[in-house]
Amino acid sequence: MTATRLDADRLLGLAGRLADLLVDTVDGGASVGFLSPLGRADALAWWEGRAAGVAAGRLAVWAAVDGDRVTGTVTLAFPDKPNSRHRAELVKLMVHRDARGQGLGRRLLTTAEHAAAAAGVTLLHLDTETDSPAEHLYRAAGWTRAGIIPDYAADPSGVLRPTTLYYRRLTTG
């Protein structure tokens, strides 16, 4: 399954399915910035709020679609400061619980890395919950751990958890 880069209109057209993925991700215990239970209306509003950033080029979003549902997504957030245009943040890498363990997370990660390099980005960074399945994915994909911040964010159940920061240098081309 390949991931398609979404323009603002396509993002809005898929917003309901993207919201379903976000709700599933939070219900599954992944720490992606939301507390459980996450209502579908709140998830929908969050995704709809991303359209302006996509239209302005501040966000690049890819979605893997399987039939009538979105099974995974990844986003790059580009800074707007002149001294930071060489880097981007990888955010909201999500894979539906039913699609996990099949390499989709790795394919989404690779898609974002290649697109970033093609756009001239030489440094990616991210944060993820320490000891989470996502952290294991990033390590296996060759990302470098920069450090751990204790009690950085609450997991979906509201418990403060440490976060590990990672970076990856890219070769542009």
Write the layout of secondary structure elements.
Blueprint: E1 3-6, H1 8-27, H2 40-48, H3 51-56, E2 59-66, E3 69-77, E4 87-95, H4 104-118, E5 123-129, H5 133-140, E6 144-154, E7 160-169
Parallel strand pairs: 4-5
Antiparallel strand pairs: 1-2, 2-3, 3-4, 5-7, 6-7
Helix pairs in contact: 1-2
List keywords for this structure.
seven-stranded mixed sheet, 5 helices, globular, Aminopeptidase, 173 residues, alpha+beta
Describe this entry's structure for a reader.
The chain has 173 residues and is an alpha+beta fold. It has one domain (3-169): Aminopeptidase. It is built from five helices and seven strands, in the order E-H-H-H-E-E-E-H-E-H-E-E. A seven-stranded mixed sheet has the order 1-2-3-4-5-7-6, with helices on both faces. A hairpin with a 2-residue loop joins strand 2 and strand 3. The longest helix is centred in the first third of the chain and has 20 residues, at 8-27. It is globular, with a radius of gyration of 15 Å. The chain starts with a strand and ends with a strand. The model has no long low-confidence stretch (mean pLDDT 96).
- Helix fraction by DSSP (H/I, runs of at least 4): 25-40%
**CATH architecture grouping:** 3-Layer(aba) Sandwich
Q: Tell how many strands the DSSP assignment holds.
A: 7
Cα radius of gyration in angstroms: 15 Å
